[in-house]
Amino acid sequence: MHQPEPILHPVRLTDLRPTQMTVGLREVARKRRQWRDRVLRDGPEFLGQHMIPAVRGPGGRLWMIDAHHLARALYDEGVEAVLVRIVADLDGLPGRLFRTYMDNRGWLHPFDAAGRRRPHKAIPKTIGDLTDDPYRSLAGELRRAGGYAKDATPYAEFLWADYLRRHVGTHLIADDFEQAVQQALTLANADGASYLPGWAGVHD
Questions:
Q1: Which domains does the chain have, with CATH numbers?
Q2: Of 69, 65, 196, nearest to 143 (Cα)?
């Protein structure tokens, strides 16, 4: 496998294939606000500093392996194209082998908004079709509140989302998000969360 170079020309957001099924729409809304604050001042520079990491798959299609929330925010704001950084060229693999390889590398997350694993083909084909997982938004806000440290583990926030899914009611997230964050902070320090990436609880 040769080491690919960044794509220095814009790629249409609608041409990028997601590698997950959901996003946290609260997270997307936050990134949309950030984009609006910056677009008039340094929009082109911002896009140049936030290249979307992707894998080139069968047929030359580009599969984004991170930054889904940013991509969805830009898509919802009407941005048509972004710069892409290719991290692997797997164009020569047939479809089934490609998806298996991606899954084994931790580059696919075929889990729905209830945390259930689904077939690879259930992953939406476009960024605009990603559905909402409110627990992913809660996990993101928990990290920013200091509940756990940023970690390089693939889909670390989704692991935290699944932990919180078992302990925080959906009604609380919908009705009082700030209180849900406070409950999540308590849960994040518990021993039961010690297996999660970035856990910041007290070690014996």
A1: 7-132 (3.90.1530.10), 134-193 (1.10.8.10)
A2: 196
